[in-house]
């Protein structure tokens, strides 16, 4: 998919690891506060490379990347996870991050995700606005979550109503009187 500025988006493929991996690492290390080892990148890219997307210019320079995964969460819902998102500073504000995240969300939904989660630093207001525009809700604050001592917000996008209602303790299928707790008689 190419736009009028020559920007195009591609799905990561392991056959291009030698081309993309060093550029991914460089872009993310410039943008994110966490120092990720090569093994962290390979953990995501080897197992869920098809859930990762790149924004490239006409010369195939990497302008942005999103790295994601999808797996059952604690034996419950299928949880998508956006692990890393980065866009070159000079290309921000052009919709690149939005497009990358939407591409990751779309493929996770196609693969039956119930919810999609992520964390971002409490100081990263641009990222928080992006995720909120896309429908993510702040789930909790994680005190001193990052190695630099910064706290994070966990955001969750509930893709299926069942994921949202189960978080609230509701279950439509078991909404019959015999399954309700017995209340004491009123005085």
Would you kindly provide a written description of the structure presented here, covering whatever features stand out?
With 187 residues, this protein is an alpha+beta fold. It has five helices and seven strands. The chain has helices at 17-31, 38-48, 96-110, 125-133, 161-168, and strands at 8-11, 53-56, 62-72, 78-87, 115-121, 137-142, 152-158. A seven-stranded mixed β-sheet has the order 1-2-3-4-5-7-6, with helices on both faces. A hairpin with a 5-residue loop joins strand 3 (62-72) and strand 4 (78-87). It starts with 7 loop residues before the first strand and ends in a 19-residue tail after the last helix. Residues 169-187 have low confidence and may be disordered.
Summary of the model, kept short:
The chain is α+β, with helices and mostly antiparallel strands.
